Amino acid sequence: MTNESNNKSLLENEMWLQEAIDNEHIKYQRYSTFENKERIGQGSMGEVYKATSTEFQKTVALKKFKISSKFTINEIINEIKLHRKVDLHDNILRFHGVTTLDPSDYGLAVKIIGGTRETNIRGTPLKYVDIYTACWNKDINCRPTISQVVKDLNDIKMNEFNEFSIRASLYAI
């Protein structure tokens, strides 16, 4: 799938979810309505928590999805759709709705997964731009380690210090 068609699919699924919430086909619950959250398991898609819903006065399971380049909103939407199909079976946990830890985190995650990256601030030295551009590489294996980032920043600081020292000595003469 191309990046453009993946972004389109991502946008369509985000719109599908928002429309389902707006039309009350899927209930949105504020995260603050859950108490006594206790992690009870984890898998490839995320972590599962046991919590008490103050709205339902029941113990519920909360699934916290991992958002990464391998697992996106598209897979979350697919899981919601599949769950809705089997929701009536007695041996399946009921799907009550969705929540977010922080709505702004959700929006940021969707943008990052969709390919949005920080724009350069005008006047930022190119060496700094190179470092944070490398950190935002879509391929996680091509991103620098924190040790490499610190080394690169120290190299920049040292070069700037040396350039300043040379200029200062020229003007002191």
UniProtKB/TrEMBL annotation:
One of its GO terms (molecular function) is ATP binding. Residues 34-173 form the Protein kinase domain. GO terms for cellular component: plasma membrane; receptor complex. One of its GO terms (biological process) is cell surface receptor protein tyrosine kinase signaling pathway. ATP binds at K63. It is a single-pass membrane protein. Pfam families: Pkinase (PF00069). Keywords: ATP-binding, Membrane, Nucleotide-binding, Receptor, Signal, Transmembrane, Transmembrane helix. It is found in: Membrane. This is 7001_t:CDS:1. It comes from Funneliformis caledonium. The lineage of its organism: Eukaryota, Fungi, Fungi incertae sedis, Mucoromycota, Glomeromycotina.
